[in-house]
Amino acid sequence: MNFSRELHSLQCPKCKHGMEEVTFEDITIDRCTHCHGLWFDGDEAQQLEHREGSETIDSGTAAQGRKYDGMGDINCPRCGDTMEKCSHWKQQHIWYEICRKHGIFMDAGEFTDFKYDSMMDVFRGWLKGKR
Question: Using CA atoms, how far apart are residues 67 and 47, in angstroms rounded to an integer?
Fold first, then answer.
């Protein structure tokens, strides 16, 4: 594996546990130590999307992530503003939260799914419905 991690004071916007910094190559993101959700500042998710092996930062399972998917309003861990609920334009079943000033939060398993889109994603979107 080509990543490192370090604990710091950022708090998970969903489960309120601490987050650790996880670095893959030259990009550092934040991962919750409890629910394994991922915080990406700016365009870090897009930067990591095409890097081979970057899915290793997404250590949680999709089943874990689904437990937190339907949560109500959550606040940005950087500024505290209420985040927008969004779904990926191509993969409608991936529901994430965005702070337009700071970044996005994906539940456990969502980054790996985001990274590897397939024809099955169309069916998953129909089953899950729109956000």
Answer: 27
Angle at 88 between CA 18 and CA 130, to 5 degrees: 105
The token duo for 117 is 């889109």
Digitized pLDDT (tens) for each residue of the chain, 131 residues in all: 455 555 557 999 999 999 999 999 999 999 999 999 999 999 999 999 999 999 999 999 989 998 998 787 999 999 999 999 998 767 777 889 999 999 999 999 999 988 876 555 444 444 555 54
pTM of the model: 0.82
